[in-house]
Amino acid sequence: xxxxxxxxxxxxxxxxxxxxxxxxxxxxxxxxxxxxxxxxxxxxxxxxxxxxxxxxxxxxxxxxxxxxxxxxxxxxxxxxxxxxxxxxxxxxxxxxxxxxxxxxxxxxxxxxxxxxxxxxxxxxxxxxxxxxxxxxxxxxxxxxxxxxxxxxxxxxxxxxxxxxxxxxxxxxxxxxxxxxxxxxxxxxxxxxxxxxxxxxxxxxxxxxxxxxxxxxxxxxxxxxxxxxxxxxxxxxxxxxxxxxxxxxxxxxxxxxxxxxxxxxxxxxxxxxxxxxxxxxxxxxxxxxxxxxxxxxxxxxxxxxxxxxxxxxxxxxxxxxxxxxxxxxxxxxxxxxxxxxxxxxxxxxxxxxxxxxxxxxxxxxxxxxxxxxxxxxxxxxxxxxxxxxxxxxxxxxxxxxxxxxxxxxxxxxxxxxxxxxxxxxxxxxxxxxxxxxxxxxxxxxxxxxxxxxxxxxxxxxxxxxxxxxxxxxxxxxxxxxxxxxxxxxxxxxxxxxxxxxxxxxxxxxxxxxxxxxxxxxxxxxxxxxxxxxxxxxxxxxxxxxxxxxxxxxxxxxxxxxxxxxxxxxxxxxxxxxxxxxxxxxxxxxxxxxxxxxxxxxxxxxxxxxxxxxxxxxxxxxxxxxxxxxxxxxxxxxxxxxxxxxxxxxxxxxxxxxxxxxxxxxxxxxxxxxxxxxxxxxxxxxxxxxxxxxxxx
Length: 695
Prior knowledge:
Layout: H1 2-33, E1 54-59, E2 72-73, E3 75-77, H2 82-89, E4 97-110, E5 113-115, E6 118-120, E7 123-134, E8 154-159, E9 162-167, E10 169-174, E11 186-191, E12 223-225, H3 227-230, E13 241-243, E14 248-250, E15 309-315, H4 321-339, E16 347-353, E17 358-361, H5 369-377, H6 388-398, E18 412-419, H7 427-435, E19 438-445, H8 461-465, E20 475-478, H9 488-495, E21 511-518, H10 525-539, E22 550-556, E23 560-564, H11 572-581, H12 591-601, E24 611-618, H13 627-635, E25 638-645, H14 650-656, E26 665-668, H15 678-691
Parallel strand pairs: 15-16, 15-18, 18-19, 19-20, 21-22, 21-24, 24-25, 25-26
Antiparallel strand pairs: 1-4, 2-3, 3-7, 4-7, 5-6, 8-9, 10-11, 12-13, 13-14, 16-17, 22-23
Helix pairs in contact: 4-5, 4-9, 6-7, 10-11, 12-13
């Protein structure tokens, strides 16, 4: 019995032992069998968007695309697309697959390379990096089954004078010293802007640029900007420029937008003056209306087959004499009658010149021939020399304005009455007027008197100044004032022949102009408004409508945003208001990508009969290549102008600009000096236009 009891106890003990052993072995076996759930991510997800420091994720097929940007080689900036970086590194191919991502510290000098069909770009510095490898879990590491993303929207938290956004924002590092030291780095954040393109699929990812690992410098400019404050505050004290060569801190100047001293007085266009205390948009965006007497007679529709805006330059010099001056007035009255003045037909104003020109009345003063003839009869002779050149400059700058009744869609025509010969130079003033789109006719009467010949500066001025030398179409020579009446019908027929007015299709009404605007962090809010004023001052010089010049705009950082397309706004005021509404973005500088984007989103939709003009404004070196996108744009007929500010790279400006580069690229050392090139840029556009063959 004792033996039987012992055997039973041993059997029971052995059974319990086997059960415990089996259970202990089963537990790890079950753990090993537990499968890890791998979350899937989209192709455009950037490492910086995912908060988890280490994770395994699955990439879908089709991530090998240029719009999913990658920065770096082996070590990637967290601004990169995770999946496209994995393709670049060879971990997966375009069919997708699992990847392991490990976040690491920020890196300097991310190296760009082309690998596995993906172009990875270089980057000077970024706040965070990541490594990508095969999607196998590391021993002892627990991986999340659900990834944690940073919020998609951001809110601004006001901190002192600096608005610090939070949320879906990538931190930026700034330095105010040329040598990067961690102690001097300041972290801020920038909100991700809303993309406003009409085709969301073409919008590339949002981006922010780290702008001051080392200060961007130009040869001879020993300056470093306080990037952090310039990018986030509009106060003058926060927009300082440090001159290390002198140790002097210079306050940002008041935006006093005035013509540069010594700038040529003969330039065709004037920019508005900015005055201290005045809003950047108080000038340049609207025209001041002039008070003019209302017509005495009912408004006439006029000859609708002759819709032109006419300015007669009336010779009021002493050389013409009183009797011939009366004959001239009679001639002008007969022309007004023959034209059939009216709101839907020709409109006519008169400028009298002698030593100096002055407007007798403008285009909207009289709206019928009868009142106009009566007004002409009351004009008194001014006297003085025959300064035709000065009169043409005056008309070019002051006469054909919206406030004076200029209608935009009607050709601008100037008829110059000359008794004998001008007493100043006419060629340059005529060239500038032509380049502004003005058709110039000359009615010359008699030859210079013997006493006048000593004052004649350009004996063959008619041959020099005529726009289109088409068998004398733009010139009428009358041998005597007493036979001037015979020229009424020939002149009226010519000015009304709008099909033959070669200048009716002018540099100011025949282009699609796309502005490509750098919105990177280094620009700063205040300077960005200065750039917009520059864009507005250029735009307002053009005749804007559906059938004339059209304006479009793109803003870029690392990504691009279509602010408005060519067909969005059809009036000048609407365009200027749209420019005013553009909000500062802030971020990096991918100029090459911006050129490609503008080519696709703006200029591919340009009308066949329009010249395609791109005006790109940037303040720094691009993080991607600009030469290939610029070359592609040039080959597609885009005329490119580049405007660089401060730290813009001269070699990139030249690569962007059309040939010859010296006529298509400009540089200023400060944003407040941009206004200096408004006139020059428009003049170059018009010079190029007038050098091309006419249709």
